[in-house]
Amino acid sequence: MVTILDRLAHDGGGRPPRHPEKARRPDTPVARKPAWIRVKAPGSAVYQETRRILRGNNLTTVCEEASCPNIAECWSKRHATMMIMGDTCTRACAFCNVRTGLPGPLDEKEPENVARAVARLGLEHVVVTSVDRDDLDDGGAGHFAATIAAIRQASPRTTIEVLTPDFLRKAGALERVVAARPDVFNHNLETVPSLYLSVRPGARYFHSLRVLQRVKELDPAMFTKSGLMVGLGETRHEVLQVMDDMRAADIDFLTIGQYLQPTRKHHAVAKFITPEAFSSYENSARAKGFLLVSASPLTRSSYHAGDDFQRLRAARAAANGVPAA
C-alpha cells in the first residue's frame, strides 16, 4: 500500500502539502493541449447556486478535488459528484490530484448532508464516490451504505451510482455496499496492467477486476461500470485486452477518457488520443458486448451519468427483448 506522509512540511494554510509524496520528484513537462480539448470557464448563475448548496452542506466533490475539466458544464446543470469521507486519500496514485496523507475521522453527519443536498439540487441521478480510506477497518463501506440509505430516505426517486475504492484487504466491505442496493456499482480500473506499478501503485489490477465480477455474483441485476484513462503510455492492444477482461467479468458499461496531467509532479501525458481513435475504441467496445460505451477526450466516470443511466436501462431492456416504453 502506498501511503507516504510528510508531517514537517506544510502549505501556507497550515495544512500538509497537497501531495507530500510527490514534492521531491523532478518536474515533468506539461504538454500543450490539442485543439479538440476545450472547456468553458465556470461562472453561470446555476453553477454558483450549486456551489452554494454544496458549501452550505459542508460537502466535498470530486469535481473540484480531482480538477475535472467538465465542472462548469455539470454544475451549470446542477450535477455534482459527491466525494465522501473527507478530502484526503491514503493512497498516492501518480495521476490523481486529490490530496494525499492521513485523513481525519469520518463525519457522522455526512450521509444526511449529502442526502439533503441531493434533495435540494433535485437530482434524478447522483454519483457518490470517495477517497481511499485504507485506515478504516471496512475501508469506508459502512459510510457508503449509510449515505445510500440517507439518500433513499430523503429523495426516494433519485437513482444512485457509487464509484468505490477497491476495498483491498477489507473482508466483507464490498458485500456491505452491494447490500445497500445502489443502482450502479462503478469501480475504475483506470489503466492497463503494465502501468499499474507506475500509475496506480497502491492497487492491484486483478483485484479491481475481481471487485466488479464479485458484484455481479452478489447481485446479477445490478449494473456494473468501469473506466479507463488513455494517453498514459498504453498500447491499443493493451486497451483491447482490458476490454476483454472486463467483458469476462460481465461489466456492463465502459468509459474511456483522455488523461490530463494535473501538475508538473504528476505522471506526464504520453500522448493525446485523437477523437478518431476514441471513436475506434468505442466501436471495438460495442462489438465486444458492453451494454453502453462512452469514449471521448473529455469523458469521465460521472460525466452525463444520469443520461447514461437511462440509456443503460434501455440497452438492457432491448437486449432482453423488452419493447421500449
Note down, in words, how this protein is organized.
There is one protein chain. The strands form 2 sheets. Strands 1-2-5-6-7-8-9-10 form an 8-stranded mixed beta sheet, with helices on both faces. The longest helix has 15 residues, at 305-319. It is an alpha/beta fold and 325 residues long. Helix 4 runs parallel beside helix 5 (141-154) and helix 5 (141-154) packs parallel to helix 6 (173-179). Helices cover 35% and strands 13% of the residues. It is globular. It has helices at residues 45-56, 62-65, 71-75, 110-121, 141-154, 173-179, 196-199, 205-218, 236-248, 275-287, 305-319, and strands at residues 60-61, 82-84, 88-89, 99-100, 125-130, 159-163, 184-186, 223-230, 253-258, 292-295.
Observed structural traits:
alpha/beta, 325 residues, disordered N terminus, two-stranded parallel ribbon
List the helices and strands and how they pair.
Elements: H1 45-56, E1 60-61, H2 62-65, H3 71-75, E2 82-84, E3 88-89, E4 99-100, H4 110-121, E5 125-130, H5 141-154, E6 159-163, H6 173-179, E7 184-186, H7 196-199, H8 205-218, E8 223-230, H9 236-248, E9 253-258, H10 275-287, E10 292-295, H11 305-319
Parallel strand pairs: 2-5, 3-4, 5-6, 6-7, 7-8, 8-9, 9-10
Antiparallel strand pairs: 1-2
Summarize the structure.
With 325 residues, the chain is an alpha/beta fold. The protein is built from eleven helices and ten strands. α6 links the parallel β6 and β7.
